[in-house]
Each structure stands twice: as C-alpha cells, then as structure tokens.
C-alpha cells in the first residue's frame, strides 16, 4: 500500500517522520511505499543570485527520505510548486495512494487548538483516506501527540453509508488496533421513547459492529449519547483517550468534490488525537 506524506520540512514534521513507533504503526496499517512531497510557493524564486532555497529544500527532503528508508519504506520524493492542498491531492490521485498523511500543529492553550490551513484544505478536498497527525510543542522540541497512531480508536458513526465506509478501515487497522470505542450520537430530540426506542436500535447496531471487531481480536466498547455530535465526540475523546478518531466526511456537490461536514471539521479542528477521515468518494 502507498501513502502520500506531506512535509513542510519543519522540525515538527521531521519529529513525526523520525518516530520509529509512528512508522511501525503505518506499516501495520499496510503502508510499505511513501511519496514524500513538499510544496513550495510559486512566488519563491530559487534561481536568484545568492539564493540556495532549492538546495536547502533538496537536502532537507533527502534527510527525511533517509529516515523513512531506514525503517524499510520504499520512498519517492517530490518537490512541487503551487497551492499545497491541490498539489498534495493531485499527487495522491496520480500515484493512486491508499492514504494521505498531513501533520497538524496545535496552538496553546489546549482549548484554542486549530487545524492548520493546509491540513484543513487537504481534508476538504481529499477523495482518499486522510490521516491528520497531531504534533504538539514539547518542552524542548515538537513531539507527536500519540506515537501509537492506531492503538486506541474512537469510531463515530451516524450509520450512514459514509460511516460504513469509515468502519471498513478497521480491515487495515486490525493489526495496529488494540481497543475500539464505537460511538453513536443521536440528536437531543431523538431520545429513547420519543420516536420509538431509538437508543435501543442504535445499541443493537453498535453491538453488531462490536461483534465484527471482537472477531478481529479488537477489544470493543459501545456508547450511545444524545446531544450535538461534535461536542459529544470530543467529550468521548476526553473520557476514553483514543490515539485516533475515525469518522467519515460527507461530500456536498461535485464541483467542490468534498467539503467537510460541520461535525467532521469541528472534530478535526479541536481534537487532541489524530483524526482519520474517510471521504465518500471512491478511494481505492
């Protein structure tokens, strides 16, 4: 399987690429080939007298390539010019990537954490599964928020077709995931007894999904909540401490290809965990 790994050549991204545990998790997911891509601004001129931007870019990319190759990945490097999210998604389509990986650095204090512009725009336009990897400021240098990327997964579902597509990711995650929490959030007005026993229906559907994961050797719990979806997903994150939140994102028309739904965007922006987003379009 192939991943497109976006890098801005920063110390933060190098921390993620240099984490042996993170890379082992990607291998357990099935990734064995990586297209490492950096996108430069079309306004940056590498040929100006005294400028060595191109040389520094190639050196930094080569250093990150070696980190990946030392862990057994087959690596291709790409230096592209243009709008980052367009070039990243375009490369993913061209190489038929199974996964896109972008880093997202948080801002302190924790309640003011926001997803970076490039990561947000990749998420809005990607038609392939996207892993938003959290990188936080450590005491001395950046750190990955969760080295064991997929060890504990919080899967949020509304039982839609797109949510089912996201659930299918467990086929790739089974060797990397030890524990899963399956969460359904019903709107506040649809509590049990209001329109039939909707909580019982949701619990039954979650139980079926849990049985499938248990057969894969993944310890699973199910949770049904009522409230605003994003708020309850983030509350469940605080309670169960997942390393990754898995959810689907819905398309809103063919012209823009994919806009994050309000729930997906809010969770991706505010979560402390990694987020694995699965779009509704064909991804394989």
UniProtKB/TrEMBL annotation:
<dbReference type="InterPro" id="IPR006016">
    <property type="entry name" value="UspA"/>
</dbReference>
<protein>
    <submittedName>
        <fullName>Nucleotide-binding universal stress protein, UspA family</fullName>
    </submittedName>
</protein>
<comment type="similarity">
    <text>Belongs to the universal stress protein A family.</text>
</comment>
<dbReference type="InterPro" id="IPR014729">
    <property type="entry name" value="Rossmann-like_a/b/a_fold"/>
</dbReference>
<feature type="domain" description="UspA">
    <location>
        <begin position="150"/>
        <end position="279"/>
    </location>
</feature>
<dbReference type="InterPro" id="IPR006015">
    <property type="entry name" value="Universal_stress_UspA"/>
</dbReference>
<feature type="domain" description="UspA">
    <location>
        <begin position="33"/>
        <end position="132"/>
    </location>
</feature>
<dbReference type="Pfam" id="PF00582">
    <property type="entry name" value="Usp"/>
</dbReference>
């Amino acid at each position: 399987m192939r991943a497109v790994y976006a890098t801005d050549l920063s110390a933060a991204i190098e921390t993620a690429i240099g984490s042996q545990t993170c890379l082992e998790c990607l291998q357990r997911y099935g990734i064995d080939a990586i297209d490492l891509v950096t996108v430069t601004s079309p306004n940056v001129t590498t040929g100006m007298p005294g400028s060595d931007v191109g040389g520094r870019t190639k050196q930094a990319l080569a250093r990150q390539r070696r980190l990946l190759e030392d862990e057994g990945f087959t690596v291709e490097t790409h230096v592209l010019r243009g709008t980052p999210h367009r070039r990243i998604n375009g490369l993913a389509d061209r190489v038929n990537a199974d996964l896109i990986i972008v880093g997202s650095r948080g801002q302190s204090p924790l309640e003011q954490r926001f997803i970076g512009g490039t990561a947000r725009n990749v998420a809005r336009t990607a038609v392939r599964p996207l892993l938003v990897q959290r990188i936080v400021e450590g005491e001395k240098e950046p750190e990955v928020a969760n080295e064991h990327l997929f060890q504990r997964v919080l899967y949020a579902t509304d039982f839609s077709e797109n949510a089912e597509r996201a659930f299918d990711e467990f086929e790739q995650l089974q060797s990397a995931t030890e524990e899963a929490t399956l969460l359904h959030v019903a709107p506040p007005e649809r509590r049990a007894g209001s329109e039939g026993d909707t909580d019982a229906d949701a619990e039954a559907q979650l139980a079926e999904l849990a049985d499938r994961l248990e057969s894969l050797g993944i310890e699973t719990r199910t949770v049904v909540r009522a409230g605003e979806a994003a708020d309850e997903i983030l509350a469940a994150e605080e309670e169960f401490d997942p390393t990754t939140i898995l959810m689907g994102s819905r398309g809103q028309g063919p012209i823009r290809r994919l806009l994050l739904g309000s729930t997906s965007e809010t969770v991706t922006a505010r979560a402390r965990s990694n987020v694995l987003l699965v779009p509704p379009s064909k991804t394989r």
